[in-house]
Amino acid sequence: MGVCAKSMDYGDVAWRCMDCEKDPTCIICSTCFEKSDHTGHRVQLKRNVGGCCDCGDPEAWDSDHFCSDHKGYNSTPEESLAKLPEDIIVTANKIFGKVCHNLKKHCLTLENYDEECLDLKMSST
What we know:
This protein has two domains: 7-74, Cysteine Rich Protein (Ribbon); 79-124. The protein is built from three helices and five strands. It has helices at residues 30-34, 77-82, 86-124, and strands spanning 7-8, 13-17, 28-29, 43-47, 51-52.
């Protein structure tokens, strides 16, 4: 279940389906292509591709044409987050906290800067 995400390197073969892709960079590996139905679709064999297989990713591929092995995400975002290791959650909270603090600090600095410039313009007229 889930998403294939098989890594493809230079020289690997992948398939593009113009009827299933969400954008022209989306591809699926040969294994997923063989296990999915693209009868009557506009398909293209690609060689020397890089990236990863998009089968099972509803943001990249039409979910009606996922292969038999990859049926997409079967959990809510909350369930997915609950599966993360505790150290990742703790680290992410610290990093996002610092990023938000710094953004707030810079926004306030810019707000004060704009007010100071406005005050200078008004006093010079």
